Amino acid sequence: MGFLRWLFGRQVPFEDGQEASASVQMQPLLSGSIDDRRRLEDIPYVLPKDIEEGERLNLQHYLLRNAIKANYMAPLEKKVEYILDVGCGTGIWGYEMANTFPGARVFGLDLEPPQTVSLASHVSRPPNNYHFVQGDILKGLPFPDHNFDFTHQRMLVLAVPTNEWPGVIGELRRVTRVGGWVELLELGETLLNAGPISQELFGYSHNFLLTRGFDSRQMENLGTWMVQVGLRQVKQHHIDIPLGAWDKHAGVLLEKDILAAFKALGPILCQRLQLAPSHYEQLLAQVPAEWKKNRVLYRFHLAYGQVGR
Question: Which long-range contacts (CB under 8 A, 24 or more apart) does 96-99 make?
């Protein structure tokens, strides 16, 4: 902890260009026993950790940024010194925030360093004020109390078991300074105008994820959980994004994103539910036409709150 105390001593922790890297006691094992995708064992996360998944996460980033017209919704002050992105994935959100706030130090935390993934040209490499720290939110954040002006976390619904969400949000609050903000963005299970194919496909996904301790329907409670851990001025927004080719912009991107996620889940889902892979693949082939015909919307949940005294 001596290194971390020095690191967050409210002084400039690194010379420009020097990358931060701190680790907790965590070395997940790799597994290729179900398919050819790279997966991590001994953690709840159910999606792969490979370059293909990184490409999907980057696509998802642009989709979400377009949906909320920014990288965040919390009312941040103009002067922000320390930003934390928990579950940073490829790092793309943090890279952009580091460019948006060049005077801030932005830290991205994830299970392992990001793999090389093609990014937009303006974020093709980490800015000098961005630093990666290895860690696992489920084991506690490796930071002292009250350090960050803005603590951000998104799309960890398939990484954080439902019963651990209040504790996770409490941990995000712990590392955020008084007056700072915590923001969460997650997908749920609400499909507007869903048809029978969508209902069957998402039903299989829901039943499988319940066996792993995940219930994305509970993401509607993000704001409630924030209030429970003591955050104030909590605001929650429902964001309905077009799903399917009926919308030539966001709808096409979200369709690609959702289908890629279902494809990645397929091997372990079919194995756990004893579902014929051919039937699952048939549903994936048929559902885009239903999304287009019904003009389906997929609901996301965003909530933010401030740390009070």
Answer: 96/65, 96/71, 96/123, 97/71, 97/72, 97/152, 98/126, 98/127, 98/129, 98/130, 99/123, 99/127
